[in-house]
Amino acid sequence: MKTALITGVTGQDGSYLADLLLEKDYTVYGLRRRSSTHNIENIQHLQFDPHVNKNSLKLLYGDLSDSSNLNRLIDKIKPDEIYNLAAQSHVRVSFDVPEYTADVDALGPLRILEAIRESNAATRFYQASTSELYGDVLETPQTEKTPFNPQSPYAIAKHYAFQIVKNYREAYNLYACNGILFNHESPRRGPTFVTRKITVTVARIVKKMQERLYLGNLDAKRDWGYAPEFVEAMWQMLQQEKPEDIVIGTGETHSVREFVEHAFAYVNIAIVWENQGVDEVGIDKKTGKTLVSIDPYYYRPTEVDILLSDPSLAKKKLNWSPKTRFKEIVEIMMKSDLEKV
Ligand code: NAP
Ligand code: F7E
User: How far apart (Å, rounded) are the C-alpha atoms in residues 93 and 339?
Assistant: First the structure.
């Protein structure tokens, strides 16, 4: 039986990966931060009590900024696989807390790599890398060979992480790889990312709990996939003969505006757009009521306008391809938020 350590287990991806590895009979350790609230909504369906379920998720306290804790845990557990999914993962927020973002997202993975090296175990390491590295894109679609051009403190911290993983693989012969994942969403997506913000707010508008949805750049385009399928690719990347950095995405791109239109369409509201720039509004075609407005607070100092993946290498090496497409993802998230709100 294999042992895995997942950092960021309380997040969207960490929770789906814990589901997957437990299904595969792994012994799964999950690193969580101490928090003043009970922050385990995404993993509360997993059984934590070892007296009831021997193969339950085992939660450990830790933080990517604390190397003594990481060294101790990794030396003790000597996991077969480590998935580093923990991060300050919000691009807009990284402009507010750039130093913290660099500490956790750049130096965090370095701390884990050092702990693996010191433990002398044959631990395989997966790093949650990101399409944000392409930033102001230099080529479309983006492949493993496309040069990086990051545009935020988040992306620049993740760029360091990408390069240090590559360096440790080459310098110390560690099995370490970067999954270059494009945006992926689900009902477990954090509510401040644009997709989930839209589906939660549309559900609240329908239930008369909120009047309006405030957004930033409606014309940004993303390659949005379905998170449970993306964690399968993470696992597959650690089962290869040789470690390799691989792009995971859908090969389709859609705008924030399209996402809004589909989310409202799910509840039978047709949106028509009027005016331009910060004055643009989305109006309910039937009632004439304004349901969407722009709030410049959500604009970013430097934006990533469009991302589009070419996931051919994932198909070739992992036999991985996306199944759930854009419209279906919107529907899954709308259905879930209408039930939850
Ligand atoms: P998420 O939902 O924001 O989860 C992030 C996780 O990291 C949470 O469990 C969070 O804990 C934990 N964390 C934050 N700071 C930490 C610290 N200092 N020490 C330890 N844990 C910390 O992110 P996600 O969407 O699941 O993404 C997973 C990873 O993939 C992240 O590294 C993200 O940057 C990267 N990524 C995501 C996407 C995407 O579209 N989702 C695409 C490419 C790459 P709390 O619950 O306590 O906050
Ligand atoms: O923004 C625009 C915003 O915050 C998507 C993270 O998981 O994926 C994610 O980063 C787009 C941007 O995701 C609002 O300007 C408009 O162009 O959902 P997001 P992101 O920045 O693409 C990558 C791959 C990661 O690695 C990250 O960890 O939507 N947008 N209005 C808005 N965005 C937000 N959050 N809120 C708005 O009101």
Answer: 29
C-beta pairs of 140-149 under 8 Å, 24+ apart in sequence: 140/306, 140/308, 141/251, 141/308, 141/309, 141/310, 142/247, 142/249, 142/307, 142/308, 142/309, 142/310, 143/247, 143/309, 143/310, 143/312, 143/313, 144/180, 144/245, 144/246, 144/247, 144/313
3-class DSSP assignment, residue 264: helix
User: Is the beta carbon of 186 within 6 A of some atom in ligand 1?
Assistant: no
Looking at the DSSP assignment, which residues form a beta bridge with residue 6? 30, 83
Distance 52 CA to ligand 2 centre (A): 40
Q: Which of 10, 130, 201, 253 is catalytic?
A: 130
Contact 154, 91 (CB under 8 A): yes
Domains along the chain with CATH numbers:
3-188+225-251+304-323 (3.40.50.720)
For the full predicted model, state whether its pTM sits above 0.70: yes
All residues at 6 or more sequence positions from 279 whose CB lies less than 8 Å from its CB, including other chains: 294
Instruction: Verify cis geometry, omega within 30 degrees of 0, for the bond prior to 141.
Output: yes
Mean pLDDT of 197-205: 98
pLDDT at 54 over 70: no
At residue 264, φ and ψ (nearest 5 deg) are: -70, -35
